[in-house]
Design a protein that fits this description.
4-stranded antiparallel β-sheet; 31% helix; 2 domains; alpha+beta; 295 residues; Ribosomal Protein S5, domain 2; Alpha-Beta Plaits
Length: 295
Amino acid sequence: MEDGKLARIWAAPAKINLALHVTGRRPDGYHLIESLAVFTRFGDRVEIAPAENDDFTVSGRYAPAVPLDESNLVLKARDALRRAAGPGKTSPISIKLEKNLPVASGVGGGSSDAAAVLRGLAEIWDLDLDGAALARIGLSLGADVPMCLAAKPLVARGIGEELSMVPDFSALGLVLVNPGMPVSTADIFAALSRRDNEPLPPLPRSIDFHSLRNWLELTRNDLEPAALALQPAIGRALSWLDKAGSGFSRMSGSGATCFGLFETGNVAKRAAAEIRGRQPDWFVAATRSMSSEAE
């Protein structure tokens, strides 16, 4: 079916771990975490349309780094949802991924792509699946997928599947910077000096730029020291954010993407332009996070 009017687009926002504490390790090797995460208006985009045969294509700046085979989380999400729906309930589908986020960069890009596919296909195929059922399917794909399905300010615990939404969380001005150096999540976890760190402190009663910045000063990304040791370019990214006036700078997830917190979106845009002018080959994006009330 080639009718372009039937194509619909779903956002796949970047996931930013504002704080990430590693609090333990399960017997099966999975690490236990506590993380405050937000999702940004900048991210990948997924276009889905009915088709005569299944099809998957990728465009965008980071398309060359995206696998097109069954190892891609987009196709894993499609196939997992098809299995869950049962025979005869899912038609062939065309999926076009616009890859705007760096691959394997600590912002949950692949997981967010998979979440967008789960949301989109559940609607297109008119499946009787609630959010909890989609989250269970998402967790089978990866620990980050359930939180990417939620895509609102949240605290994640366990291996990332225990989610608590954070109310009254305003949008934040952010600048994302990635120096273009790959880092291996497995290598970073293996390099941790300890895995039984303190959990997150209680969140402030009301969250705005100032209260959040003060709270962040009490928190950590427990993966950052190991990542800095393995990839010193992360330190340069943090330094550029600080020079550009960031109110608070930190690495997200397992890196190498770093974020800077800015009081307004316009200040973030100016900072991004300054960093981009100095580091034209880096990934630099000014964006805003989605508030807890965002639809």
